[in-house]
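Consider the tokenized backbone below.
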């Protein structure tokens, strides 16, 4: 019995074209295709011989798409899922891979890239197209640059601001900090605002977390 590739999209025309594309590239010799335009039917189509699922999630919310993936993986943990999506938000992409998908393809994917992705996934590897790779690379670089910028601004804190930051992180309240440093509560709040501005955080909780995560306090 041939292994199975499940194809899902909202349009029959797309699914028929996908079947022709797979046949043209030789997949029909080893695989059978099962198609559906109904997301609710996907769970009923999962069998032991189901190896690949190609899901076009255009029009689905991220949460709905993630719920579908979770259900399919619960039925067949060996299922290799390829996602086609126009939504390329980097945080959502991570969520999909956390749920177990093997490939995420954007709307820039052409036939050659899709066939490459399918072969890579069948071989047990993860596949990202160039657009997704660039998005992830830029996200990581921007995150590192942002953290470097924030850490650098720590050097701009005055001696007094560092003393106030230490006491904030130790859990002391404004009045207690004022008493310890022999300054007014107004001055403490002024230092707090300046510290948050320099470290680019929005509130005291974020300030403490940032200071601890970046080893700015003992």
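A designed sequence for it:
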């Amino acid at each position: 019995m041939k292994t199975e590739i499940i194809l899902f999209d909202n349009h029959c025309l797309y699914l028929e074209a996908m079947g022709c594309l797979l046949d043209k590239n030789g997949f029909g010799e080893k695989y059978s295709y099962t198609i559906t335009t109904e997301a609710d039917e996907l769970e009923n189509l999962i069998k032991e011989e189901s190896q690949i699922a190609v899901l076009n999630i255009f029009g689905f919310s991220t949460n709905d798409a993630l719920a579908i993936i979770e259900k399919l993986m619960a039925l067949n943990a060996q299922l290799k899922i390829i996602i086609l999506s126009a939504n390329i938000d980097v945080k959502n992409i991570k969520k999909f891979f956390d749920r177990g998908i093997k490939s995420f393809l954007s709307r820039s994917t052409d036939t050659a890239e899709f066939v490459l992705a399918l072969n890579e996934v069948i071989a047990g590897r993860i596949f990202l197209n160039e657009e997704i790779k660039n998005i992830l690379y830029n996200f990581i670089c921007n995150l590192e640059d942002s953290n470097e910028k924030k850490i650098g601004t720590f050097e701009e804190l005055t001696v007094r601001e560092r003393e106030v930051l230490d006491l904030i992180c130790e859990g002391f309240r404004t009045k207690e900090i004022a008493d310890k440093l022999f300054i007014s509560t107004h001055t403490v709040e002024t230092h707090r605002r300046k510290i948050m501005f320099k470290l680019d955080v929005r509130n005291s909780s974020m300030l403490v977390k940032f200071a601890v995560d970046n080893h700015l306090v003992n």
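The first strand starts at residue 3 and ends at 8.
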